[in-house]
Amino acid sequence: MALAAGNPRQPAAVALGLCLLAVLAAVLWSRLSHRTEVAAPGAVRVADAMVAEAGPDYPAAPPATTTTPAGRQVALPDNWDGTRPDFTGHVWYRIDLPEPASRWARPVIYLPAAGMNAEVWFDGRRIGGAGRMWPRVTRHFYTPQLVDLPPGLDGRSGRVDSLWVLVSGHPGYRCGLAPVWLGEHEVLYGAWRWRAFWQNDGTGVTIVINLAIAVLVTLLWWRDRSHAAYGWFGAAAAVWGLRNLNYVVVEPPIPDLLFAELCVSGAAWFTALFAIFSLRFAQAHHAGYRGPRGFVPAALGYALMSTVFFLSADSYARANAGFAALAAVGVGLTLFSMWRLVRLALVNPRADLVAVAAGAVVYLVLLINDYAIGVDHASLGEVFIRQYASLPLFGAITATLVQRYLAALRASRELAESLRSQVEAQRQQLANSFERLRDAEREQARAQERGRLMGDLHDGLGLHLATALRLARAEQASREQLMLALQDCMDDLRVAVDSLDEQERDPLALLGSLRFRMAPRFESAGLRLGWQVAPELADLPVLDASGALDLLRIVQEALGNVLKHSGATVVGMSLATSPEGTLVAVTDNGRGFDPALAASGRGMGTMQTRALRLGARLRWTRLEQGMTMELLLPGHATSG
Amino acid sequence: MDDVLLVEDDVATREWLAGLLSGDAGLRIAKACGTVAEALDWLQSGGAADIVLTDLGLPDGSGLDVIRAAARRPGCDTLVLSIFGDESNVLAAIDAGASGYLLKDGSLDSIREHLSCLKNGGSPLSPRIARTLIRRTRRPEAQVPSPGVGALLTDREHDVLSGIGKGFSYAEVAAALDVSTNTVRTHVRRIYDKLSVNSRTEALYEYNRRMVEQGRPPIR
Q: A555 and chain B: CB distance < 8 Å anywhere?
């Protein structure tokens, strides 16, 4: 474990060191190579020119050649902040055309940097340029220009040996002219295109990417505020993207001065917001780290102060006066930010944090490079690369956010999966316990059924068998009595069996079968067992096995009593339905008895008990001749 | 003189029935035995019976086998011996080709009545058997599209079954329908025949359906 854990900081530190070396080498190369921007032969770099200042008004024509001696010879780059700090207006630069130029097939002049804007004049006429040269002068300070010259350098009166570059500018914004190139179009085109791509097209792309990152991060932060650092980062990325419009917007919709000042103070805001992000990010990933107290208000105060200062400046020059100091504070803040991110990667050397730190290192070096360019009043034409430096840094930070969300997504999926399986397990458990419950209920029902049947057999069949046995033992018992007792046994058994059929549990089916069973017995005793079913029956109640047996036993008992005791010659069963329920009646024409005594007889008490179980009403009525027993079963489905 | 094959494993019952039947004019016990194997052997070895009486629960198998074997012979009536006329067994026997049942505890009169019924009709239908038969004919036609199930019974036969199902006697059903008791018996006999034939048709239909499903030729 000790080995594996080893010292994971070491590879992180090495990676960051290598990254630092690489970016330093790249900066060094860029600082040295712009002098040899065009390596191929067939092009001439012109680093000196004759200068004539032309005042604030757009001049109608270049100075006459005869007045040339009035001008001064200067070295290029000619940065106005260094050479003419208070000058506003136009300056002519005379570029001498070297001898081989007249032999070039398609001669061109390439202006890597001229600000705010520049035109090329040849043989007394304007032959190329971009935008406007009179107020409001368009912001083409970051736009390289490539202008065709007439082949053979032929003018109206023969070969022309020099041309004029007219530059329009003002103090405080690195105006002036960088060394120019003369040469074959095919040689200089590539260099112009390369610079135009990185300075204009590429910067536009970085703005789009920065704003996209800003929108994405801000939206995610808005929906989930659990990680405050990303809110600061989203704001910083948005400010940074907008601030870089400085390099690509040539004709802003607001006054130039205001636009420029907003861009400059935008850099301060970005620096402050990003520093706060770094602080919060470090706090989130570095347990125990708190950071300097009052850092957030201080950073925001710096940004606010910068804005107030720049916006209150009434000229570029006044604004520029405070640039170095405020930018120095910004560099300090950025140093803090980047140190926090690097420190974080060393403390917590996760791949994504190391990537953020590497982005920070790259960004810091390029920022210092840009700062050095910005305060150098002697140079001109360097490429600012901070906007590119933001890409790996912002990308790495966004990646940490994406990773965070992927991890959260994975966690929630796993949670959902585990919840699902838990629910499934519980469902299974529930189903099992339901199954057990059902089994238990079934078992209970079976037990009840057995109990009921056993009880019934005991009270009915058992009693009849005991009687039969007693008769068989008794010597004076007649065969007739024995046969009747055994017939009772048989009837009891049949009725019990009938009550078990699940499909035969309505009163009509039950009583129909009972009648069929009993009829032969009545006939052999010389009685007629009548049976009447009402022609229109409502829906009959469906009884359970126990209820079916109770109903059968009540009617069977009633019929048995009639057979044994009434001396009747006719007995009738009937079934009808009424609004109160289902009415079953047994009527005979025998001797009859006092209904008040009905409860006292053992058999009748049992019948009442059974009727009670059925929820039925059982009563006897004495007729003129005979008796009628009525059983009113509740619960048939009446139609009204 | 009708020859009777009696298959009953309970010796006392068998002897009582044999005695009872041989005493009755017009019947002769041609063979009395207690196992399925004996009965089938006797039938296969040329034994001829006009009436077969068989118990269902026999020591070596089911009396249904005896009924099936007997039902293939023309002019041979089969009755199941039953203690209660318990319907599930009786219905299975009817499906196998039986024309009714005989109660083992029946009085001489009731057995005579059963046997006489057999000659011009089936044995008495119990209400429960009748209701079961009505339920069968009410099965949704789409479920088993075998020919004749829907129109298995005529209206009159259905009326007869319905009356018996409510527990009325043949005479009461006859009176209610304004026909003679013998006519009711004839209907009952026809119902028995239709049902046993129909159950065989259904079996054939089911068999052929499976054969076709398995890509084998059906039998006709």
A: no
